[in-house]
C-alpha cells in the first residue's frame, strides 16, 4: 500500500495527497505534517519507512469539504486519490492485493464547484494571461457557472483587469511568472505557472474546437492568437485538474477594449466597491445596495459594479428596466416573490456536468424552471431588456414535467442515499421497494417469534455492514440461547454482547439485501437518465438562469431606488457632471442603522461649459471632504452600472475612467513609505487619465515637508487642468492653492462649512462655493481628546506661526525662537498667581487636631462671615 501511495504522490508534486482508505482520506510523511498543522488535527504514526516511523493524519470522507476549504484558503492544493475498485475485487487477485487507486481530481482555488466551498453570491474565477508575439490577452472562466470570457490585455492592463475580476487563481506561462507574480500577490490570487506547451495557440485551438464540438472558432467570433492561447491554457489546466471531466463551459465571449469604465486597483480599494478596507463586505458599496434575492442576481450585481458600462444604449436600457419596476410596485413584489424560490441553477448544472451533483441539483433545476414559467406571463408589457430576458424563460415544459414526475419533493443530496425517485414513476422500482419494506416487517415478526422461542425478552435483531443481520443478547442470556443449538447458531462474542444467527434469518437477509440493493441500482439508473436529460438542455437552462438573474437585478435596483428615494440619472455623451442633493449610499445606510440623524446632501457641478472642470475643496478634517469626494465618484459609477443614484438629480457625461487617491498606507513588503505609495498612485493617474475621466484626489503632498508637499500638489492640479483636461475634485489643506481659481479658467474653489461656538467647532457637512481661511486643526485635536495643556500650547505656537507669516521679514528669527523647533521644549510659563483670600489666611493658622467641637463650630461661623 505504501508503495502505491508513494507512486501516486510522486506523480502529483506540489499538492497534498488525500489518499482514500475506507471512510477516511489519509495523509502520510510531509503531507501529514503540513496538514496536521494547517487543520489542527491529531498527528499519529503508521508503520515504518527506511527505519523511521511514518507520520500520518486523516479526515473523514463525509466531512472532507470543510477541511478542503481550510486548506485552499491557506494556499494548499489537494490531490484526491479515490478507490477505483471494490475491495472484494482486489481480493480476487490475492489476499494481499492492494485496492487500485488514482487521483480523480486536483482541487485548486480556481477550480472549486462544491456548494460548501463557494460563496453563493460571488464568482470564483480562474484566469489565464498569454502573450503571442506582439499581442497579449486575458481569459477567465468560472467553472461553477460555465462562464468563459476573453479580451485583449497588454501587460500594463493586467493589474486593473485582475482587480476587476478578483480571480482566485491566475495561470501564466513559466516565462512570464516574474511579470505577473507581484500583481497576483496584490490581488490575493494564487499564481500557477504552466509549461509553454499549455499556451501553444495551435494546440489551444484544437482543444477549444474539441470542447465545443465545432470545426472552427469563427462561429463564436474572431479571436487572435493570444486570445486563443489564453483560453486554451484554461481548458488544458481544467483537463489536468479535473482528470478528463471537463466542466460545462459556455461558448467564449470576447469583451471589447473600452467597453467598461476603467477602474484601477487603488481606486477600487479606496472606494470600497466590493470589499471594505477591513477585508469583509460590511462597509462596502456592494453590501449597501444589494437587494437581490437569488445568488445569480447577486453575482450579476457584483459584475456590474466592478465593470460599469460605457455603452450608452446598454446603460439606458438598464435604466429603463429599473424605471419600469419602480413604477410597477405590485409587479416588482410579485416577481421578487417568485425569484425567492429560484435556486442556483448555474452551479447545479455545473455540478451535474462534472458528475459531482446529486438529486438535489436535479430538484434545483426543476424549481428554477418552474418559477421561470410562472414569471414569463408577468413580463408581457416589459421594456426591451426585460422582454428579451423573458424570451429565454420558456421551452422547458417537457423537462419540468419529467422532473416533477420523477423526483420526490425534498430529495437527498447524494444519489447513493436513495429514496429520491417518487412512487408511481417506475412500477419495477415500486415492487422492489415493497419487497424491501416487507422484509423489514418480516424481521420484526421474526424478532417477536425468537423472543418467545428463547424466553429472552431483551433479544434484538440488528444489522451492520460486517455481519449483516444478527441476533444480539446480553451475556446473562447466553445459556438460554445455547440451549437450542438446532435453532440459534453462535457468531460472535464481544465484551458486552453475544451474537447469534439462524438459517431462516440468513435466508431473509439475502432477500432483503438483494431487494434493497436492486432498488438503489434502479434509482441510480433513473438519476443518470435524468442527469443526461438535463445536460442535453444545458444551453436553454443556462439562458433561463441568466435571464432570471437579469430580472432579479432589475427588481433589486428598483426596490432600492423606491425605498431609498434614489432618482434616475441622465447619462449622455457630453462632459457634464451635475449632481443635485447627492448622498453617499454607504455612509447614509450607516447613519440610519445607528439612528444618527439624516445624511446632509450636497450639490456638485463640474460644468460642461468649462473643460476641464475642477473643484478645489478646502475645509477642516472631519468636516466631510472625503465623503463628498467619494460620493460623487460612486454616483457616476452607479449610473453607468445601470442603477438609479442617491441624488435628487444627476446629469453625467459618459465617464471612461475613474481614479481615486484618498488616504494612503505603507507598503512595507516592497519598501514603500506612505508618501511613496501616494506618489505612485498619483503618477498613475496623471499618466493615464483622459478627458472623459473623473479624478478625485485628497491631500496630495501631505506625506512630506510643507513646501515640498505644496509644490507637488500645485503642480498636480496644474497638470490635471492643462494636460489631462478631465473633471476632478481636489481636496487640500494647502490654502495657498485657492489662488489657482483666479489663474486657471476651469478651477473653482469650494469649502465644507463649519461654525464656531464658544471655542468649539461645529461641522455642518455642507459644501459651498468659496475657500476656507483656516483648517481648525487645533479644535479637531481638542475634540479628539488631546490633553488641554497640549491644546493650549498648540494654540500658542499656531498664533506665533501665523504672526510670523504676516511679518515675513521677521519669520526666520521667529521660527528660530519658537520652542516648537527645539529638541526639548520647556513647560508653558505659569499664569499670574491668584490673590490669597481671607478664608485661606485664617485656615492656614488653624490646627484641626487641637479644636474642640465647640471651637470647630465657632470657626465655621467665623469663616462664613469672611465670605
Structure write-up:
The chain has 867 residues and is an alpha/beta fold. The protein has seven domains: 2-107, DNA repair protein MutS, domain I (MutS, DNA mismatch repair protein, domain I); 120-257, MutS, connector domain (Nucleotidyltransferase, domain 5, 2-Layer Sandwich); 290-396 and 537-564, MutS, DNA mismatch repair protein, Chain A, domain 3 (Orthogonal Bundle), CATH 1.10.1420; 427-528, MutS, DNA mismatch repair protein, Chain A, domain 3 (Orthogonal Bundle), CATH 1.10.1420; 570-775, Rossmann fold; 786-821; 834-867, no CATH class. A hairpin with a 4-residue loop joins strand 8 and strand 9 (147-152). Helix 14 packs antiparallel against helix 15, helix 15 (359-375) packs across helix 17 and helix 15 crosses helix 21. The chain is globular and about 115 Å long. The N and C termini lie far apart (101 Å). The model is unreliable at 809-831 (pLDDT under 50).
In a few lines, what is going on in this structure?
This is DNA mismatch repair protein MutS. Helix content is 45%, strand content 18%. α13 packs across α21.
